[in-house]
Amino acid sequence: MGRVWGALEPAVVSGPQGSTAFLWDAHIPLSLHRKVTLLVLGLDNAGKTSIIMDLDRGEGVEVLPMAQPAQTRLRVERFEVTLLDLPGAPRSRSAWRSHYSAAHGLLFVLDSSDLARMEEARRVLSRVLSHPDVSGKPLLLLANKQDTASALLPCELIERLSLERLVNENRSPCRIEPCAAKRGPTAGPPRTTLQGLRWLLRTIPAAPAPQPAAASPPGPGPRAARGRREEEEEGEGEEERPGAAKPSRGAGGIRRRG
Ligand SMILES: Nc1nc2c(ncn2[C@@H]2O[C@H](COP(=O)(O)OP(=O)(O)OP(=O)(O)O)[C@@H](O)[C@H]2O)c(=O)[nH]1
Ligand SMILES: [Mg+2]
């Protein structure tokens, strides 16, 4: 089965309300019905579970029998997608990393209206992206709760989260889409959410395959020196990991419409 690999170069994808895509949009796998695992991450109350429930009703999305609790299985185009809904409360975040190695890509959900927790969201996202098992994997950032009056637009969130620096440092292809999961019982997902999901699936490299989940926790280093209590309080904080930070190539950057 052949594969098409594009050159690593910045890409721009435009969308409504300033949605933006950028950085190393490169790989287009041609394999059929490929099984992929996507982690759905974000702070508690961001709307992760709501978005997954919305996706269930998406046009062109077929719901497959569930494998395990907190998993949703969908068929989207040529992909058999397992979405892992991981709780976002601080004490739950330390469990996220046990899923990183098995993940092909990430959906990170933001409550765009929760300005008070934006810095916390930035720290958590930074921590996730710099993990060695995550760096380089594609990221779809869903700027949720756009129906609320105080919601920041994607272009504002890019600044607040220092997103350009984060994705450059970690070489993660990234796209941000505005969305509102809470739209009434019969509504499906916003078009932007589905567009983002399709982009994420297309962007997952065909190889190498993710490694099976590690049986043991990460090796010694600053993280290991921290107590469990501190870990639970801070969740996925901003601490650097050995070997995680990569120098920016200076290429790419965020391009916005208009
Ligand atoms: N206004 C508005 N409310 C939303 C939206 N999406 C989710 N909510 C609400 O936000 C709250 C949290 O949503 P959840 O989907 O449970 O959040 P979560 O990210 O899964 O939270 P945890 O499981 O605790 O990590 C619920 O009351 C939802 O109804 C949205 O787009 N707009
Ligand atoms: Mg939830």
TrEMBL record:
Region (Disordered): 207-258
Any one GO MF annotation of this record: metal ion binding
GO BP terms: non-motile cilium assembly; receptor localization to non-motile cilium
Entry's Gene Ontology cellular component terms: ciliary membrane; non-motile cilium
Keyword tRNA processing in record: no
Organism: Melopsittacus undulatus (Budgerigar)
Chain positions recorded as GTP binding sites: 42-49, 88, 144-147
Upper taxonomic lineage: Eukaryota, Metazoa, Chordata, Craniata, Vertebrata
UniProt: Mg(2+) binding residues: 49
Protein name, entry field: Uncharacterized protein
Record-linked PANTHER family: ADP RIBOSYLATION FACTOR LIKE GTPASE 13A, ADP-RIBOSYLATION FACTOR-LIKE PROTEIN 13B
Ranges annotated as biased composition (Pro residues): 207-221
Segments passing through the bilayer: none
PROSITE patterns: ARF
Keywords: GTP-binding, Magnesium, Metal-binding, Nucleotide-binding
